[in-house]
């Protein structure tokens, strides 16, 4: 069947009331951004629906691009015909024949245009009867059909679809503000970024780089992870923070058991400064409660003390297997497990405190002044801007492993 467009259905967006128009406009803009590689496509918005007209572009590739756009509940290949009984019959018959191997079907019609003379209860048997008369060994099954053919009678025409594809769900990226993702290079933080974007949040990222203890290959992991995340939104700025001197100072001057906690507090202080400068409203982390020593309730409380910014923790109630499942789904898992470690593995204490207190952390920090170190790290930072369609990798990250 020659489908000529893709029908896009909203999910949660449909409940936005007076703000719905703003969300729809952002969704349309985000879809257009994803379809830059398919210049023939056009996007049309009607009441409660959006349509991508293919105009000769590859249907499967356009569908895959749209499936990565947050704010879409489901999608279907569709054909549009006039409000004409014979055209409608021809369209549903073609839609059924396109479902290879189908022996049972169901017609589900919806008449948005109430001026159309045939009511919904009559459309179903009318179109279903046409399929039965023009096929063999085919039956109607209203409970568990091989294919459900949907017919929407709207003011501008009639749309026929035969299969629904899942969308990414959530809200359009850019409708609920911006957050700074602490992107380490591990499995958790990119998943956290993905789930935050699903709530309509635009991301910038911050990465703490500690050469020579961490290599350029570790930094490349982060760039590649950001590139995968950009497929679900737009360009992502990565703020790369040189962190070696601060880590060395923590190692020299802080008690070993508190070094992890104090390192995280320094990261949070720097992240807050960067977020404020970029007019970002929150900080997102990949923390999951109880997963490691720095992610106990006591650790989170002590680390949180140094910032007034909201901390978004989408993974806080997830176990590791759930997180891994999502990382595989979004394409970040294989990148995250590359054997190039980030700064969190530098100077790891043998027995980190799992129940650090704010009073102790403040006391230890009072014995050293990190103000100039933080200022220098921010001053020496730089930005890498990552787009989903660009290749930022300078060389083969596994070259010296071969």
Major sheet summary line: 9 strands, mixed
Order of helices and strands: EHEEHEHEHEEEEEHEHEHHEHEHHHHE
- The total of helices stands at 13
Q: What percent of residues adopt helix (DSSP H or I)? A: 25-40%
Radius of gyration over C-alpha positions, nearest whole angstrom: 27 Å
Uncertain residue ranges: 392-402
Describe, in plain words, how this protein is organized in 3D.
The structure is a single chain. The protein has 402 residues and is α/β, with parallel strands linked by helices. It folds into 2 domains: 5-166, VC0802-like (2-Layer Sandwich), CATH 3.30.2130; 178-401, HUPs (Rossmann fold), CATH 3.40.50. The protein is built from 13 helices and 15 strands. It has helices spanning 20-34, 59-67, 85-98, 120-133, 188-198, 216-230, 244-253, 256-277, 297-304, 320-330, 333-336, 358-366, 371-379, and strands spanning 5-10, 42-46, 49-53, 72-81, 104-111, 139-140, 147-154, 157-161, 165-166, 178-182, 202-209, 236-242, 282-284, 311-312, 382-386. The strands form 2 sheets. Strands 1, 2, 3, 4, 5, 6, 7, 8 and 9 form a 9-stranded mixed beta sheet that branches. Strands 14-13-10-11-12-15 form a 6-stranded mixed beta sheet, with helices on both faces. Helix 5 (188-198) packs across helix 10 and helix 8 (256-277) crosses helix 9. The longest helix is centred in the middle third of the chain and has 22 residues, at 256-277. It is elongated, with a radius of gyration of 27 Å.
């Amino acid at each position: 069947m020659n489908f000529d467009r893709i029908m896009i259905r909203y999910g949660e967006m449909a409940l936005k009331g007076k703000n719905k128009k703003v969300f729809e406009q952002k969704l349309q803009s985000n879809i257009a951004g994803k379809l830059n590689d398919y210049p023939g496509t056009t996007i049309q918005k009607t009441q409660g629906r959006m349509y991508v007209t293919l105009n000769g572009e590859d249907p499967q590739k356009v569908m895959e691009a749209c499936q990565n756009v947050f704010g879409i509940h489901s999608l279907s290949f569709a054909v549009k015909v006039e409000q004409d009984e014979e055209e409608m019959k021809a369209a549903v018959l073609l839609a059924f024949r396109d479902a290879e191997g189908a022996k049972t079907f169901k017609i589900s019609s919806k008449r948005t245009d109430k001026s159309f003379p045939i009511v919904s209860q009559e459309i179903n048997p009318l179109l279903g009867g046409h399929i039965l008369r023009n096929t063999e060994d085919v039956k109607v099954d209203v409970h568990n059909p091989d294919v459900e053919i949907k017919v929407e009678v709207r003011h501008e025409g009639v749309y026929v679809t035969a299969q629904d594809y899942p969308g990414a769900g959530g809200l359009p990226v850019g409708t609920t503000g911006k957050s700074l993702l602490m992107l380490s290079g591990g499995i958790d933080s990119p998943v956290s970024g993905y789930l935050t974007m699903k709530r309509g949040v635009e991301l910038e990222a911050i990465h703490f780089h500690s050469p020579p203890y961490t290599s350029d290959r570790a930094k490349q992991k982060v760039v590649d992870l950001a590139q995968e995340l950009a497929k679900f939104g737009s360009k992502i700025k990565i703020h790369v923070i040189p962190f070696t001197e601060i880590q060395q100072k923590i190692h020299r001057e802080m008690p070993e058991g508190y070094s992890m906690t104090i390192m995280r507090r320094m990261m949070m202080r720097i992240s807050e400064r960067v977020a404020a400068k970029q007019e970002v409203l929150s900080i997102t982390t990949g923390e999951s409660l109880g997963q490691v020593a720095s992610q106990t309730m006591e650790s989170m409380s002590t680390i949180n003390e140094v910032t007034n910014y909201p901390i978004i923790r989408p993974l806080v109630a997830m176990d590791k297997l759930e997180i891994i499942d999502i990382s595989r789904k979004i394409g970040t898992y294989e990148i995250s497990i590359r054997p190039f470690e980030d700064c969190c593995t530098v100077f790891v204490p043998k027995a980190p405190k799992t129940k650090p207190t704010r009073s102790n952390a403040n006391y230890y920090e009072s014995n050293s002044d990190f103000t100039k170190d933080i200022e220098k790290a921010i001053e020496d930072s730089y930005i890498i801007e990552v787009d989903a369609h660009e290749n930022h990798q300078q060389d083969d990250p596994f070259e010296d492993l071969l």
